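REQUEST FORM: STRUCTURE PREDICTION
Request ID: SP-0412
Submitted by: Lab K.M.
Chain count: 1
Length (residues): 355
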Amino acid sequence: MNKATYTEDVPPDRFGLLERIMSLGRPARVMLIGATDSGKTTLLTFLANRLLDEGLKVAVVDSDVGQKGVLPPATVSLAFPEGPFESPGELSAMAHYFIGTITPGQYIGEMAVGVKRLTDLASREADVVLIDTTGFVTGSGIEMKRLKAELVRPELMVFLERKGELSHLRRLLSPYGEMVTLSVSEKAREHSRGERREVRREKWRAYFSNASLVEVDLSKVVPSGTELFRGRPLKQEEKDLLSALFRWLVIAGWKGERYAVVKADADSGPRQYSRSVIHAIDFEMLSNLLVGFIDENGLCPGVGILKWINFGGMKAQVLTPLSSNELDRAVELRFGRIRVLETGEELGLLRREEL
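STATUS: Completed
RESULT:
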């Protein structure tokens, strides 16, 4: 399932935009900005196909982490279309930047860095770089767009809006590049939360369709994105004391700036403890957690689903479609903030501070 497919049945102003892009110097970086279901991906697909028809080399930077075309979700991805395509879902990525969640409000820095890194890579080879962004245009989404624009300095920012809804954002981003404003097409259709979830379900399932279980040596591949594994391992008497005080089964723990403990509750009663002293993580939160394999350049060859951790042996069992050569490039295993099954079912989101 894809929300957008290639069509030339577009409003006339899209052809004017195409001519403007053709007139830009090379490489031309074009950032598409609009609220959810405003038609950004449809516009990107139209522009990319027409630019390819003109013989230009096109790059697509897909940063819409929750409604990704280029697999997998929860990453920023770079692809170079080699020919006409109906939907970004047909494209294979050349590089990813791991975000680890489909709701990037707490990860605006990573989102901006990911777009910048991949746009820089794309600009080395492409004539035109088309940057698709999330529909997150309120709250911290405004700051996220500002950071992206400030870092990338696109030659053109294209705003798709209804009734001037992005006027504040356009004013905020005006120092960072030329702007074009288009009306949302009358054919643009709003999708329910359930429909968007179903789109992601199919994309997760497709990405993990040929996955296998691999063992990751956490003494060689550094676990990151979490407070776990920092500091010295807890002594057995410290685990016993924490277990007795809070009625926990302490599975693993470390003493750094504070105690970081992986635990299971022995009963359902209330517990009082200072979170400035103890960071307690339910073991269940680590089950089916999305993780990213990170290479020495900070890029992400691909993602996996954490199935089990042997804390004593520092080994992790991860389900991933990555090849052995791709896995050999990993120097970090970065913890994300969404739990998902290989069937595509999303089990829940975690806040940044929970891990």
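NOTES: Residues 215 and 317 are 5 Å apart (CA to CA).
Reviewed by: T.R.
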